[in-house]
Amino acid sequence: MFKKFSKDDVHTRTNVKSSIAKNIRNKIVEQYPLLQDHIDDIMPKKVSVSLYKCEGKIQLYVVNGEILFYQQFDDFIPELRLVHKYPEAFPRVQVDRGAIKFVLGGSNIMCPGLTSKGAQLPDEDWPVNKIVVVYAEGKESAMAVGKLAMSINDIKTINKDTGVELYEYLGDGMWNFRE
Q: What's the pTM?
C-alpha cells in the first residue's frame, strides 16, 4: 500500500474537531482493547489531531507531526512506529527467517512462511481481514503491518496462497514519510 508513498500523495490536511477526535479514540480502543491504558498518551484529549487525505482514499491520523494510524475504509491500522512503542497491544504473527527479505521487499506473506518451523501463529482462530503485526523469527521488533487474507485455521490447513496482505513494512514510503 505504501511502497512508493510520498508527500505528493497527500491531497488535503485538516484539523479534526474534538468531538470527532473523541470518536476516533473510542473506535481505536474498541478495535485494540489493549491500548485502553495508553490511549491518553497516544492521543491526548487536548492535542489537535490532523487528518491527511491521500491518494487511494487513505486517511492518515497525525498527532504532533507523527502518524499514529491510517485508514483506507473501516479499520484503523497502526503505523509501524506506534507498534514499536506498544508491541503488546496488537495481534501478532511471526514468519520464519526465509520470509524476511521478501517481507522487507514489500511482498505479501505466503502461508508456508507462517506455518513452517520458526514461524508462529496464535492458537485461536482469527477471521479474514483482521489487522496483524508481523514479526520475524529471532527478531524483537515488528517489521510489517498487514491484514489476514485467510483465517488462521485456513492458513494452517490449506497452507498455500497468500496468508497476510501487507500494508506497511520497514523501509517503505510510510516509514520514510516526513512532514
A: 0.89
